[in-house]
Amino acid sequence: MSAPNKSFDPVEVEALKPEEIARMRDEALAAFAAAGDLAALHEAKIAHTSDRSPLALANREIGALPPQAKVDVGKRVGGARGEVSRALKARQAELEAERDARVLVEEAVDVTLPTDRFTPGARHPLTTLSERIEDVFVAMGYEVAEGPEVEAEWFNFDALNFTPDHPARAMQDTFFVRATDGGGAEQDAERDAETGIVLRTHTSPVQVRSMLDREPPIYVVCPGRVYRTDELDATHTPVFHQVELLAIDEGLTMADLKGTLDHMVGALFGAGVRTRLRPNYFPFTEPSAEMDMQCYVCHGESVGNPDRPCRTCSSEGWIELGGCGMVNPRVLVACGIDPQKYSGFAFGFGIERMLMFRHNVEDMRDMVEGDVRFTRPFGMEI
Ligand code: FA5
Fold it and tell me: Fewest Cβ atoms nearer than 10 Å: which of 104, 154, 186, 310?
C-alpha cells in the first residue's frame, strides 16, 4: 500500500481513476452474470470480491490520498464495491433457486408409477375353493351357517347319535379341551357340564345348531375348520377344513341328495362329470353313503389302460369325495324336528383333499407351510 502523502493526486493513480473503477465494477458484474452455476459464481466471487481483487486493491490506495480526495474516491470505490456485492447476492439467489427447482424435478419420486417390488397379499387357495363351493349352494338358495370351533361334546357327538362308546370319541381321535367328567363348580352351561368340551372333529355339529336355530325348511351350507389328533403327513393334517351341507324339508329323498351332488360336481369340475354312492356308515345318517365322483381328467378312460395313466385318480376312474346320507330320524328328534313330517339329507367333505385332486397337489403339508411358491400359481385372488 502507498504511504500517506498530502500531495498525492488521485488522478495520477491509475487504479483510482473513475473510468478504471467503473471498468472493475463492470467486469465483476459481467463475470457474475456469466456464471452459469454456483461453482462458476464462486470462482467469480473470489476474483472480484476477495482481498486480492482489483477493487479491494484500489480500496487500499485510498488511505494515501489527501482528505478531500479520500472522501470522493472513497465514495466512488465504496459505491462500486456495494454494487458488486449486491449483484453477487442477487446472482447467488438466482442460481440457488434454479438449482433447487432442478433438484425437485430431477429427484422427484412418482408414487403413481407401477412397481412389482411388493407383491400384494392374496387369499389362500383353500379359502377361495371353500368360497367357490359356498357360491354353488348359495346360488341354489342355501344359507351359509357357521358354528364354534371349540364345541360342546353334546353337539359334536351326542346329538349326532354317536353312542358313548363310539371310537371317534376316544382321546386318540379327538382333542378334548375339557373331558366329560372333568367338570367343576365353574362350569357355565348345564349341557357343557354334562358333556365336556372338544375341538370339533367335523362340521356336522353345525347341522345340529342350524336345526335348533331354525324352523324347516332348512337349507344350509356350513364351511369351517376342524381338528383331529392326526399326524401331519402328505395326506393328513391335524387342522383341516370341511364343508357340510344340510337340507331339511318335506318329502326329501336320496334322489334329491344325488341330484344336488351331481349339480355341485358339475359346477366345480365341469358338466357331465358323474357321481356314485357306495354304502357306508355314519351314526347321524341312515342310510349313509360314501360319495365318489368320476375322474374329471380321464373320465374313467385310464382304468385298465396302461398307455393312458392318470395321476389325478391313480387310474382308478373315480375320486372319493366325502360322506353323505339321509339325516337319521334320531338326529331330527334330538333337534326338535318331527321325523314323520320332515326328512333331510346331509353331505360333508374335506377341502384339503379336494384341493389336492383338483390341482394335483401331492403333499398336504404344502398347504400349511405358508410358502408363497406354493400359493402363487393359484393366482392373486383377493
Ligand atoms: C365326516 O367328518 C362326516 N362328518 C362327513 C359327513 C357329513 C357324513 C354329513 C355324512 C353326512 P369323515 O370322517 O369321513 O366324515 O371326514 C370327511 C372328510 O374329511 C374326508 O373325506 C377327508 O376328505 C377329510 N379328512 C378327514 N381327516 C382328515 C385329515 N386329518 N386331514 C385332512 N382331511 C381330512
Answer: 186
